[in-house]
């Protein structure tokens, strides 16, 4: 099933931009309590940056694999996982409202870029494999290998297919090639 990448990216952008409002509200509240700003000014800020990088990587995987990394494809707006994580990191990094909003804008931009890269990775794989035919080399428990365009690729199937049969890649689910 081909995904509408442009529509998905527009949805992602709307969700990410909607974080400005909670960022302003929570950033204002947190920056007015000295405990939080004092606690997150020290070395813990570096831990927050490491967590932010992890969230960016998870966001990339969610976008590339159609959101199965965390959601198992059950959540219709998978960007929410990364979005909430990144919003939380931005709020925790808030020293004052200006730097809080600036942090969120930078992190949101990085989040959007990671999702664009992930979706482009999916699109490239889809364009490279879906619709291509080849010969099934081996199969066991619905997982096997097929020779597609002189390339040995790992394939999956929902049906019983005999070895040495001609197969066609019909779908990419998560990061797996499915054949019939």
TrEMBL record:
Ranges of residues in domain NfeD-like C-terminal: 127-180
Sections of the chain in a coiled coil: none
Transmembrane segments: 12-31, 43-63, 75-94, 100-118
Signal sequence range: none
One Pfam family recorded for the sequence: NfeD
Keywords, sorted A to Z: Membrane, Transmembrane, Transmembrane helix
The keyword Zinc-finger is assigned to this record: no
Protein name: NfeD family protein
Species in which this protein is naturally found: Peptostreptococcus canis
């Amino acid at each position: 099933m081909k995904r509408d990448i442009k529509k998905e990216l527009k949805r992602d952008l709307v969700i990410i931009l909607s974080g400005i409002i909670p960022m302003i509200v929570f950033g204002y509240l947190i920056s007015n309590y000295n405990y939080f700003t004092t606690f997150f000014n020290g070395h813990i800020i570096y831990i927050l940056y490491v967590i932010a990088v992890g969230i960016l990587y998870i966001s990339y995987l969610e976008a590339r694999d159609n959101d199965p990394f965390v959601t198992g494809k059950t959540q219709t707006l998978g960007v929410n996982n990364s979005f909430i994580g990144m919003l939380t990191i931005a709020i925790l990094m808030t020293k004052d409202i200006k730097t809080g909003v600036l942090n969120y804008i930078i992190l949101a931009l990085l989040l959007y870029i990671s999702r664009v890269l992930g979706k482009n990775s999916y699109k490239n794989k889809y364009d490279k494999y879906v619709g291509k035919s080849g010969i099934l080399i081996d199969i066991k428990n619905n997982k096997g290998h097929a020779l597609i365009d002189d390339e040995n690729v790992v394939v999956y199937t929902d049906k019983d297919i005999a070895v040495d049969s001609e197969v066609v890649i019909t779908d990419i689910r998560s990061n797996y090639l499915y054949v019939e």
